[in-house]
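Hi,

I'm pasting everything inline rather than attaching a file, because the server keeps stripping attachments. The sequence lines come first, and each chain or strand is labelled.
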Amino acid sequence: EVQLLESGGGLVQPGGSLRLSCAASGFTFSRYAMSWVRQAPGKGLEWVSAISGSGGNTYYADSVKGRFTISRDNSKNTLYLQMNSLRGEDTAVYFCAKGGSGVVTSFDYWGQGTLVTVSS
Amino acid sequence: DIQMTQSPSSLSASVGDRVTITCRASQGISNYLAWFQQKPGKAPKSLIYAASSLQSGVPSKFSGSGSGTDFTLTISSLQPEDFATYYCQQYFSYPFTFGPGTKVDIK
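And the predicted assembly:
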């Protein structure tokens, strides 16, 4: 059974940093691209970042480029999102999502999310 | 960036109704289109990928169609567990983008 468990969310001041983790199990982690998707309170879904299975290719939304860094440790089956220079508009539930099979894929499984609140 | 729109933004329907949601991309995306269902306070659930392929375990009352710029999600007979918000998403190119969502509630 595929499981994705996010952690690391919390309250942080504007300008601060936070690192999110997503522990994966139930599949061969290194074979699949992974993404982070966020949802601000009462709003829709926003894709944030993606990383290839090997970790060699990364992609970012313009809204986080230069501030967030996605990475993965395939030996630990864990996905990360390092978030720096946080702003109020980064307040959201952050979901990790597993890519499906194939070269170009969407998501097939999602974690339950972790809440990040940026406020003084 | 590819912009995604959905219509309607919300709809009220009764149990047993056939419901259709439309999604439009600002440029052609072939069939790189997915649909997700989200209930309040829960993570999204993947329903359809490649415009018309059902994810494993998704009931056949859900169906998707379309290619290029225009897509539809149809629920053949709405059940109480189907009341939720539905999002389309393009994965033709980065940045991936979602539609704004369609909320389906009980009439």
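Chain A touches chain B through 23 residues (CB under 8 Å).

If the labels don't parse on your end, tell me and I'll reformat.
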